[in-house]
């Protein structure tokens, strides 16, 4: 079996754009006509350039090769240009292609990927969602109420959280500690600390003990600033405090971990076992959040999870992508003894459902791993073709503030 063809799509994600403005998908095809899908979580360059980078990596290291040879592919790409170090852009490409290889491997074996990774430990996977304003809800959409939304209004956040709990979720996530800035870490303003505490308190009062609260900050603060924030929200017992400081110095994150009772979670911006090893060695977090579209792929993340397991650290796969990374997360999570919780983009409905020929199964707060071969999902290529992403500028929005316009 040899890989003979590679195709990419950059798909525009229509409003409300849950999971990002675009998705970067890849399809690999073998000489036997078996195909596999992958997806990259990469925002370091424009998405169309990233798609070309994926094609370049595939042409150099995969076309003409057996997709079963995951280790060989990873090492050749990892060492490209004599770099031999974690590279977030290269690993975004590798992750997408590696996921597609596993999809092929599973289809060729007529087994779901989890059967090839040690077997299924979990029959269902606990999931959480961000507090997304949602159509048909009593929570006003931002366009109808631009000055009030679930990210800055405790009452609306509490109402939205209660509605998700009513749907079946038993964990919800928010990041009200903005506005986000490229110039981190910094000290949070008192007004931001106060708002964050009021938001978390309102949600706790609305959901009681029926749901965990996951608190994110996107790595904004200094250690001292993060600890000030942690003290304000500790009384409401969040399940985690996500990325309290930037990801480049786990030694600093460890200072926060030692100074708060809230479990520290991190990992969406890390790649490969080497970066995660530094977090583990420094005892900087007790929950790791690898994103399979960036972390190095399925096998590399299985290794990360194994290292974490030896230190009683749990895994909560991150997903700010489309449904192919979501499906890969599910396949891996089903095999992990130290799995904690899975990021779900609402109920995998909306455009995520439209992109697939068969929806990811979600029931009462739980994701049910598919028993179909490979990743268990198939892209609807006609939908991909019909929704090209035509944006040309790289920019990031968080908490209403646009960066790098």
From TrEMBL:
- Which parts of the sequence belong to the Mandelate racemase/muconate lactonizing enzyme C-terminal domain? 154-263
Q: Has keyword rRNA processing? A: no
Q: Which SUPFAM superfamilies match?
A: Enolase C-terminal domain-like (SSF51604), Enolase N-terminal domain-like (SSF54826)
Which key words are in the record? Lyase
Q: Which InterPro entries match?
A: DgoD-like, Enolase-like_C_sf, Enolase-like_N, Enolase_C-like, Mandelate_racemase_C, Mandelate_racemase_N_dom
Source domain of life: Bacteria
Instruction: Return the protein name.
Output: Mandelate racemase/muconate lactonizing enzyme family protein
Species the sequence originates in: Mesorhizobium liriopis
Give the organism's phylogenetic lineage: Bacteria, Pseudomonadati, Pseudomonadota, Alphaproteobacteria, Hyphomicrobiales
């Amino acid at each position: 079996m040899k890989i003979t063809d590679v195709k990419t799509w950059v798909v525009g994600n229509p409003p409300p754009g849950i999971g990002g403005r675009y998705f970067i998908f890849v399809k690999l095809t073998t000489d036997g006509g078996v195909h596999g899908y992958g997806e990259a979580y990469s925002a370091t360059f424009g998405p169309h350039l990233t798609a070309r980078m994926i094609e370049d990596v595939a042409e150099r290291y995969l076309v003409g090769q057996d997709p079963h040879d995951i280790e060989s592919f990873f090492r050749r790409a990892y060492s490209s240009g004599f770099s031999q170090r974690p590279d977030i852009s290269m690993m975004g490409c590798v992750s997408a292609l590696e996921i597609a290889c596993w999809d092929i491997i599973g289809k060729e074996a007529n087994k779901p990927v989890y059967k090839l990774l040690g077997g299924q430990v979990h029959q269902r996977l606990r999931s959480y969602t961000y507090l997304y304003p949602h159509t048909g809800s009593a929570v006003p959409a931002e366009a109808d109420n631009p000055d009030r939304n679930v990210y800055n209004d405790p009452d609306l956040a509490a109402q939205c959280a209660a509605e998700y709990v009513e749907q079946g979720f038993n964990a919800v996530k928010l990041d009200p500690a903005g506005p986000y800035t490229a110039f981190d870490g910094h000290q949070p303003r008192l007004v931001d600390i106060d708002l964050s505490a009021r938001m978390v308190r309102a949600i706790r009062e609305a959901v009681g003990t029926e749901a965990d609260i996951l608190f994110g900050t996107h790595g904004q603060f200094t250690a001292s600033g993060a600890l000030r924030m942690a003290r304000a929200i500790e009384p409401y017992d969040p399940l985690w405090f996500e990325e309290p400081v930037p990801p480049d110095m786990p030694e600093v994150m460890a200072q926060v971990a030692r100074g708060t009772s809230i479990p520290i979670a991190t990992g969406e911006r890390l790649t490969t076992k080497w970066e995660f090893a530094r977090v583990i060695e420094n005892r900087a977090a007790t929950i790791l959040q690898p994103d399979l579209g960036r972390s190095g792929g399925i096998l590399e993340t299985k290794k990360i999870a194994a290292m974490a397991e030896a230190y009683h650290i749990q895994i909560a796969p991150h997903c700010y992508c489309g449904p192919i990374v979501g499906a890969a997360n599910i396949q891996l999570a089903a095999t992990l003894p130290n799995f904690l919780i899975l990021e779900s983009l609402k109920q995998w409905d909306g455009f995520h459902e439209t992109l697939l020929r068969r929806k990811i199964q979600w029931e009462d707060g739980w994701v049910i791993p598919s028993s179909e071969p490979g990743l268990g999902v198939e892209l609807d290529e006609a939908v991909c073709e019909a929704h090209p992403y035509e944006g040309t500028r790289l920019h990031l929005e968080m908490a209403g503030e646009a960066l790098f316009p």
